[in-house]
Amino acid sequence: MTRAASISLMPPAGSPVRRAVGAVGIFLLAVSASTGATFFGQSPPLGVDPRADLGDPAGAPRHGAELERSTDELARQLRCPVCQGLSVADSPSESASHMRAEAERLLAEGYSPEQVTGYFESTYGEFVRLAPRARGLNLLVWLAPAAALVLGALLIVRYVRRGAPAAAPELAEDPSEDLAEDLAEYRERVRNEVGASLSSSREGGRSGQK
Amino acid sequence: MNRRAFLVGLGVAVPLLAVLAVAFRYDPKIVESPLVGKPAPRFVLTDTSGQVHRLEDLLGQPVVINFWATYCPPCYEEHPVFLAAAERYRGRAHFLGVIYQDDPALIARWEEQLGAWGPTLVDQAGTVAIAYGVYGPPETFFIGRNGRIEEKIIGGVSERALEQILEALL
Questions:
Q1: Inter-chain contact B39–A81, Cβ cutoff 8 Å?
Q2: Dihedral of the CA atoms A86, A90, B135, A94 (nearest 10)?
Q3: Higher model confidence: residue B25 or residue A147?
Q4: Within the 99-138 window of chain B, which residues sit less than 8 Å (CB to CB) from chain A?
Q5: Neighbouring C-beta atoms of residue A51, cutoff 10 Å
Q6: A20 to A33, A67, B11: CA distances (angstroms)
Q7: Highest mean pLDDT of the ranges A121-135, A190-204, B21-35
Q8: Looking at the DSSP assignment, which residues form a beta bridge with residue B63?
Q9: How many CB pairs under 8 A join A and B?
Q10: Which of A40, A54, A142, B141 could disulfide-pair with B65, CB 3.0 to 4.6 Å?
Q11: Residue among A44, A49, A98 whose CB faces B125 most closely
């Protein structure tokens, strides 16, 4: 009796095909598991604590005059979001008062001014700082005026050291002599013409009286 | 021509023109939000009818949060856009309005005359506006299913923009 040959659909163990099939299988299992977990399991909660990035307060809680002074100083460094170039300290807007109140709350808890500024910056962006940080392209704001001042000073020093400009070329000793000669010709012509016209008008007058 | 004067002039004019060419591409009124791409700040607010709303309860669907006020002209213009969108996307997205420093009596009159497209939340202490970095109304935040702020629009929202963003989040 012969034993019927068994037909196996599985590729031989260790073969590349079998390894590839195994990898695909694991991948599909992982996908279905994660999909199932997402569908049936708990999704991560929506939203984060707005103060999550603050961390722990860097210092001790503040009270009274110290708290007021710290709040004032910090409010002068923060930009009012609804005003044109005003600090939170100077702005009468409701937004500014809310920001000041929030800053005061955080400072009272012991957060440092840098931490509080960092918190506002994380929501509003760097624009909330009235004075930009001296880094990157912002360095232009800090260095350009100083550079312009130095350049201007150098130009002035260079101009002064170069000395007075060269004297203008001298004129003729007595220009009136040359001028007198030039004008003599024209004076003679004027005398002749005026004299001629006076003579002709006298003769015309005499003939009219006859 | 004085060659030195020409070169100095060129040295001043070319960088200046380059700076202007770059700078004029940007609208000075728009400030990029650092929150786009980050998880949305959580909040608990009460609406004008006294009902409490928590952001974390709105799981699994996109959330549109619009900071607005009755004294804001673009808010008038975008109001019909939100009315229509809230109806069109009912059941598929959440629409929340957050009042930005306004009088509750005026809000009530506004909603009576123009209608309400969703809960009108009152941010009394301004803490939510601070958490979202709101510079002034109207500002609209689009939160994806994953809880991240995917987009922020400063100024009035057009129907087209709202539709484009929401369709991408759905």
A1: no
A2: -150
A3: A147
A4: 101, 125-127, 129-136
A5: 16
A6: 20, 66, 64
A7: A121-135
A8: B94, B143
A9: 85
A10: B141
A11: A98
> DSSP of A4-63, one letter per residue?
PPP---SPPTT-HHHHHHHHHHHHHHHHHHHHHHHHHSPPPPSSB-TTGGG-S-SS----
- Say what the ipTM of the complex is: 0.81
Check CB contact under 8 Å for A123 and B34.
yes
Give Cα B40 to chain centroid, integer Å.
Answer: 13
pLDDT at A101: 95
Total Cβ atoms within 10 A of residue A154: 10
Higher pLDDT, B159 or A45: B159
For the segment A58-62, the average pLDDT, to the nearest whole number, is 91
Q: Sheet harboring B94-99: ordered strands across?
A: B52-54, B44-47, B120-122, B94-99, B63-68, B139-143, B149-154
CB proximity list for B72: less than 8 A, separation 6 or greater: B100, B136, B137, B138
Tell me whether strands B120-122 and B94-99 are parallel, antiparallel or unpaired: parallel
For residue range A126-141, what is the model confidence (pLDDT) as tens digits? 889 988 777 777 777 7
B100: tokens are: 């930005």
Amino acid at B105: A
Mean pLDDT across the stretch B87-97? 95
User: Residue A38 above 50 pLDDT?
Assistant: no
Q: Which residues of B touch A50 (CB under 8 A)?
A: 41-43, 127, 130-131
Q: How far apart are CA B140 and CA B146, in angstroms?
A: 18
User: Tell me, what's the pLDDT at A77?
Assistant: 94
**pLDDT, averaged across chain B:** 90
- Residue A26 and residue B39 in contact, taking contact as beta carbons nearer than 8 Å: no
Give the containing element (helix H, strand E) for B139: strand B139-143
